[in-house]
Amino acid sequence: MKKIYLTLLSIFAINANSQTCTRYYSDVFSTVTTSSAIQFGSNTSWNGSGTTNLMLDFYQPSGDAQALRPLIIFAHGGSFLGGTRTDADQVALCNAFAKKGYVTASIDYRTGFFPFDSANIVPALVRAYHDMKAAIRFFYKDARTANLYKVDTNFVFIGGSSAGAITALHVAYLNEQCEMEPYMSTTAINALGGIEGNSGNPGYPSKIKGVINICGALGKYWWMKTGDVPLCSLHGTADATVLYGQGKANPGFQTLYLDGSRMLYAGTQISNVPHKFYTWYGAGHVPYGSNAAYMDSTISFVRDFLLPYVNCSNTATLLPNTPAGTVNAYSYTPCTPSSIKEIANHLNFVAYPNPTNGELNFKFTEFNTYQINIYTTSGKLVFSEKLDGAVIKINPALLSGIYFVKINDNTNKTSNFKLLVE
Predict the structure, then answer these.
(1) pLDDT (tens digit per residue) in 321-351
(2) Are residue 206 and residue 353 in the same domain, yes or no?
(3) Domain for residue 323, yes or no?
(4) CATH value at residue 306
(5) Using one digit for the tens of pLDDT, what is the confidence trace for 10-61?
(6) Span 175-181, mean pLDDT?
(7) Which of 109, 213, 257, 270 has its CA 20 to 30 A from that of 167?
(8) Cα separation of 156 and 135, whole Å?
(9) Is residue 50 part of a domain?
């Protein structure tokens, strides 16, 4: 009964009709309480020499009486070679948004690769990607069990600086294994843990509400598809580390060719993914790390981006400006998952892979709310989740065997199919 009451209170507090907000707009709290060195997962260290325990610091408004709060997870920069969750820019962002009524987390992820080339930085990015997913699942797990952190999982946002932003962008938009395959073999991907990874908290969702990209980039702009979560980007035109447009990140190492924020903006004009983009004209990489004025503009722009997604109607104070220069959208052919199987149904979707060893992906022709239930052959319900989207992935952590999947949308259309878990 207590959990039902808390959920209803959260819906009233956050999901009410859009209104002008003080909380989430202003610094309604003067102090922040920090809980340090919380372990959210673990995985094999980057060089295979042992196990890395994955830690986060959690920030919450001191004395906050609200039952459930929206969460922002931030990841640090450092070229996938260094950086920590206590980097000054991450601490500043976490404190700034906790004072506005969010709860925030700064996470560590596995860093390190050698030699310094594209063959080794790609697995480093995948490791960071897996670790951030484990952090998201950590908070879903807590919300459904001990509820220590009082997170409303309907409002989970991720973001970061530089390599942390690159990580968050890939978590948000790299959602099909076949998109990884030009960079890594299927065998290598599976060895690292596939799409969801093995960094902790299996079986819980890694669903998010939006992405905060500060001086980051994505492998391919076309990975952002209609119906994907909204994006907020800030980037300097003179960034020589992660390019504003398109090119190799960390040019001294000549490591990874990426689409920077300007290219992503062009891509979202095609896919219609909501995207608020702020250009720092003439600024270099992570300018807010050492300049208070840039930090203030970062906090203000991200705040204004988030407001409508927590149902606040406040007028933005720092409006998106005109992106610098022009970019040319390149041609591409969307990949087709190798294990895809068409399912005869009333909802017009595909589900893959089937058979699966854990993860199951759905591609619907319409963005909608879908209730997904999985039953054993004896009729026992073993997985139940209501999710929004056109592209949905789940990891139900099922034992090997045969199951039946039943899907309903919010118009009462129903489809069923048999699933084999290997």
Answers:
(1) 999 998 887 878 777 654 433 333 457 777 8
(2) no
(3) no
(4) 3.40.50.1820
(5) 444 454 467 999 999 999 999 999 999 999 999 999 999 999 999 999 999 9
(6) 82
(7) 270
(8) 11
(9) yes
CA separation, residue 356 to residues 179, 394, 403 (Å) = 18, 11, 11
Q: What residue spans of 145-234 are helical by DSSP H?
A: 163-173, 177-180, 186-192
b/e per residue 365-399 (b: at least 16 CB within 10 A): eeebebebbbbeeeeeeebeeeeebbbbbbbbebe
Beta bridge partners of 211: 158, 231
Tell me which residue of 415, 374, 380 sits closest to 397, measured CA to CA: 374
Q: Give the pair of three-digit tokens for residue 351.
A: 């589900």
Confirm whether 317 is domain-assigned: no
Q: Is the pLDDT of residue 398 over 70?
A: yes
Q: Is residue 369, in this structure, part of any structural domain at all?
A: yes
Q: How far apart are CA 123 and CA 336, in angstroms?
A: 22
**pLDDT given at position 418:** 81
Mean pLDDT, residues 387-394 taken together: 86
Same domain, yes or no, for 163 and 39?
Answer: yes
Within 10 Å of residue 11's Cβ, how many Cβ atoms?
Answer: 13
Tokens 């959690």 belong to 58
Q: 197: Cβ–Cβ under 8 A, 6 or more apart, which residues?
A: 43, 126, 129, 130, 131, 133, 134
Extract the tokens encoding 135: 């952090």
How many structural domains is the chain composed of?
A: 2
Name the DSSP class of 19: B
Domain range enclosing 242 = 2-310
Q: What is the DSSP string of 222-267?
A: GGS-TTPPPEEEEEETT-TTTTSSEEEESTTTT-EEEEEHHHHHHH
Same domain flag for 352 and 274: no
**If you search the block for the tokens 């260094």, which residue do you land on?**
82
